[in-house]
Specification:
five-stranded mixed beta sheet; globular; 40% helix; 22% strand; 324 residues
Length: 324
């Protein structure tokens, strides 16, 4: 029987799970819906079932598990503390539950930190000592790597770009604050703003695209922008401007070697990156424009999954060292 690592990347919409060899090479993967409205126990049972099925199919024995999950978290006690997109997961003891079920070491961290680690080890961050990674998906998160090490900050709260306030007269965020970046630029709120645009009665292709798709989404907005729809372009320009404002603040505070853009919205490619590269320097005065380096994640939506595997690998190496 082979030994294998497990990486688990928990998101507000879906959960990605991978089985990997002890060198971190992916052997199998699955995606399952999170279904947060059903509570954490249903998702946990589905995670365990998926891991067991993959391990059985590959005749493998799990030796360590790495988990990335949206914050806030209590990493020391292995608790999920009711993230904005997982409100039903309040104080869910995911580390204890996984350890009880599988009997192996569990390493647990904020999903954006884990994705930052994945990009630094396997992706676009290789070769850079100081990295800020931002994921723009259902929500918005950030991970900081300084001198090659993850920086967590007090209470594991560093890097939460999505909950920086960029519009004090905006709407209330799930976190309780008003005007968070996430309330404008996350996938969830892009979809909300698309609906508001349609409901305003303004002529737009968005109406037909949403009707065809069944619901508003960031993808319907991006599709309309690619067709030069005026209303969609205005909405997208506003999205990019607020995102650039948030990223400009990150660069002013951290001055990282590189800023990596990941998450589902990054699939827009140059439609997103070009305006960010143009706009971000206009919000930064202390770092020369030529020193601002904004690049796409190399691992796509697998950044978090690869980072979770890297966590599991570090745990397994500690296990091996303790046995030798």
């Amino acid at each position: 029987m082979n030994e294998a690592l497990v990486g688990i990347d928990i998101g507000g919409t879906k959960i990605a799970i991978a089985l990997a060899d002890l060198d971190g090479g992916l052997l199998a993967r699955r995606r399952i819906p999170t279904r947060p409205e059903l509570g954490p126990n249903v998702a946990f049972d589905n995670i365990c079932l998926s891991v067991q099925e993959m391990a059985s199919e590959l005749d493998s024995r799990v030796t360590a598990i790495g988990v990335g999950c949206p914050g806030p978290l209590d990493v020391a006690y292995g608790l999920v503390l009711s993230p904005a997109n997982l409100r039903t997961w309040n104080r869910f003891p995911i580390v204890e539950n996984l350890h009880t079920h599988f009997g192996v070491r569990i390493v647990f961290d904020n999903d954006a930190n884990v994705a930052a680690l994945g990009e630094c080890i396997y992706g676009a961050g290789r070769g850079f000592a100081n990295v800020f990674y931002v994921t723009i998906s259902t929500g918005i998160g950030g991970g900081i790597v300084l001198s090659g090490e993850l920086y967590h900050g007090v209470a594991n709260g560093a890097g939460e770009l999505g909950h920086s306030i960029v519009k004090p007269d905006g709407i209330r965020c799930n976190c309780g604050s008003i005007g968070c970046l996430e309330t404008i630029c996350s996938g969830t709120h892009i979809a909300r703003r698309v609906k508001e645009c349609i409901d305003s009665g303004r002529p737009t292709l968005l109406r037909d695209l949403v009707e065809d798709a069944g619901e508003p989404s960031a993808k319907t907005l991006i599709d309309a922008v690619r067709q030069n729809d005026h209303a969609a372009c205005d909405l997208w320009d506003e999205t990019c401007r607020y995102l650039a404002l948030g990223l400009g603040n990150v660069i002013t505070i951290l001055a990282p070697d590189v800023l990596i853009i990941g998450g589902g919205i990054s699939a827009a490619g140059d439609l997103l990156l070009d305006p960010l590269r143009e706009l971000v320097p206009t919000f930064v005065s202390m770092v020369p424009p030529e020193c601002i380096n904004i690049i796409p994640a190399a691992l796509g939506e697998d950044s978090g999954l690869c980072g979770a595997v890297a966590l599991a690998r570090s745990a397994d190496m500690c296990r091996s060292s303790s046995r030798s």
